[in-house]
Amino acid sequence: MEKIVTFGEIMLRLSTPDYATINQCHDFIVNYGGGEANVAVALSHLGHKCYFMSKLPPNQLGDGAISHLQANGVNTDYVVRGSSTLGIYFLETGFGGRPSKVIYNRKHSAITRVQINEFNWDAIFRDATWFHISGITLALGERVRNVALKAVQEARKHKVKVSFDFNYRAKLWTVEEAKPVYQKFMQYVDIVFASFWDANTILEIPLDEEFKDATLSEKRRNVFPKMIKKYQLNYIFGTDRVVYTANDNSLAGYYFALNGDELSWELTKPIRFNIFDRIGGGDAFASGVIHGLLEDFTNPAYAVRFGLCTSVLKHTIYGDASIFSTEDVEQFMAANGSAEVER
To answer: Residue 287 sits in a domain of what CATH number?
Structure first.
């Protein structure tokens, strides 16, 4: 069984009931979630041995987050305790033409006080197979970035695959602040979850002049090979979402790879679906892709389809993380004919 490690922040989520707005509410629905924690939970339900790295306060809120992780099969041996504040986010769930809204209250949370010397790096990575992190974590301050950089360096030292979900959040930092951090971090990454905008704007990978008026798919085919070559990536994965209403979306998945100078890529046919809870859909996609690559690293077409179906299923349940088994996802794949791809 593969050992997967993720590093990030887990927060208290306070959601409005019955699609109410925040200013209508007198109470909230409580849950825990956060990007890398969601990936660990999802991969645990897919049959993997998952560990979560973080810093949590030594109080009942921190205990609650740990209980949530452990209840979903995630090992918390690499969670250190300290400080007094747990990050919180408020979710106003959208309906119809009204989109969802998220308000963060995480500026001085425990993870922002994390230190490199609080972790036993050799114990974490010596028998690990995979390490996952996202750009949200990089946005949480200099201390967190130092720990994140040390983590990917140790992963590389121990020959552990590193996946990175760009997950740029304008509410947390500016593009100009993010650019040098992402560009430095990319030197240690193997698999990336990214969009054309991420590559072109944050990494500053240039788009050739003749593609300025091209379709999004054509722009990706121009920019992604340059990104793969520059950072020696194995794969780039991502999704295309169409929003019809807050509760009615479609998703397609794509991957890109290079074999020498030959570009390999696929775009799945979209799946249209109704939404119960959108939060964590991207984390579910990442977890499904990681699972697919762990099953067969040479078969990104299977990985992207498995990731897409994991994400669609996640949208049908409450909470931040997917809790579906491999059998659940494969049955959904078969029922939706998601083996089909478009070039």
So the answer is: 3.40.1190.20
Cβ pair 29, 14 in contact under 8 A:
yes
268 has a pLDDT exceeding 90:
yes
Instruction: Give the N- to C-terminal CA distance of the chain in Å, as an integer.
Output: 34
Rounded distance between C-alpha atoms, residue 32 and residue 66, angstroms: 10
Q: For residue 338, name the pLDDT band (cuts at 50, 70, 90).
A: low
Query: How many domains are contained in the chain?
Result: 1
Provide mean pLDDT across the span 81-99.
92
Using CA atoms, how far residue 72 sits from 124, 321, 322, in Å, is 20, 10, 10
Helix (H, G, I), strand (E, B) or coil at 151: helix
CA dist 13 and 31 (Å) reads: 5
* pLDDT tens digit sequence for 148-176: 999 999 999 999 999 999 999 999 999 99
Parallel/antiparallel/unpaired status of strands 130-134 and 74-75: unpaired
- C-alpha distances out from residue 314 to 9, 82, 277, 299, Å: 20, 32, 8, 23
**Domain, as residue range, for 74:** 3-342
Packed helices 281-295 and 300-314: angle between N→C axes, nearest 10 degrees: 150
For residues 228 and 258, the answer to whether their CB atoms sit within 8 Å is yes
Q: Does this model's pTM top 0.70?
A: yes
3-state secondary structure string, 3-55? EEEEECCCEEEEECHHHCCHHHCCCCEEEEECHHHHHHHHHHHCCCEEEEEEE
